Amino acid sequence: MRLGLLSDLHCELAPPRQRSWINVYEPHRLGQRLERAAGIFDAEQPDIVLLLGDIAELADRPAFDFVFARIHELRSPLIAAVAGNHDGGADTKALEASAAAHGIRLLRGEAVGIRGASLVGLGIAPVASGGSAFSAEVPELTGQGAVTIVASHFPLCSYAAQLTAAGLPYSGDLANRAAIESLVCQQGLPAVAVSGHVHARCASAAGPLLQLTVGALIEAPFDCAIVDVQGDGDVTVRRRTFTLGDAPRINPVFAPADERWRWSGDHWREVR
């Protein structure tokens, strides 16, 4: 199974405001970077292209339309998205309407079988009305397929300690992160979680869970990723990252541009 991944586009149309998280946002170059990512996806022909949330900075329909219009003609059999905390909170009507108009599938808890793997997208909801904390809805885990792939905006493993130690801001975890991580791990099957949110490229493994976070597209490292999951007998994962912009002033990269992982039967190990 081959995945094409983008995250944290934070699309904001005119007049975009000057913003930053780790590095300065570049909304005026987002269209160009989307076109470059589309070229990579067309060349690599993933089975599914996933947008991992925070698609629009202000959750407005024109911004969603801008993004979806540039990717809906891809030759990938399936293009899908999960919502991020910037994509509407309790009100995702604009996201839903735009996705429907452009043929983008929103993943929110249901499992999809693709090439021997089970793919599930995490839906999120604010913990309190108007609040900034979010929890994940309990996903449908079928236990079918050699590998479970979880598409989520928020990581299932926390990177708070790693990013804080590096002097970088941390955007917070799901309120029920530990419970969702435990639920995924309890299957006893190898699981791969792909996510964004932290605007940093990270990788870690804890027992049966391999967590890969994709760097932001709106700011450096301007990541676009291809992840290959092979589940026939020997379960392996390879992530290749394509950087679509200049080197960052502040470096949020904690994983190599080309990395490989292998399932040993009870844990993941990185292959060097």
Can you tell me the CATH superfamily?
A: Metallo-dependent phosphatases
Rounded Rg: 17 Å
The topology string of helices and strands comes to EHEHEHEEEEEEHHEEEEEEE
C-alpha end-to-end distance: 22 Å
Which band does the percent of strand residues land in? 25-35%
Query: Which CATH class is shown?
Result: Alpha Beta
The SS-based structural class is alpha/beta
Which fold name corresponds to the CATH topology? Purple Acid Phosphatase, chain A, domain 2
Number of beta strands: 16
Main β-sheet description: 8 strands, mixed
Indicate the low-confidence ranges by residue numbers: none
Q: Give me the CATH architecture, please.
A: 4-Layer Sandwich
Report on the structure:
This protein has 272 residues and is an alpha/beta fold. The chain has one domain (2-271): 4-Layer Sandwich (Purple Acid Phosphatase, chain A, domain 2), CATH 3.60.21. It contains five helices and 16 strands. It has helices at 30-44, 61-69, 93-102, 160-165, 177-185; strands at residues 2-6, 48-51, 78-81, 105-106, 111-114, 117-121, 124-126, 134-136, 147-151, 191-195, 202-206, 209-213, 223-230, 236-243, 258-263, 268-271. It is globular and about 50 Å long. The relative contact order is 0.17.
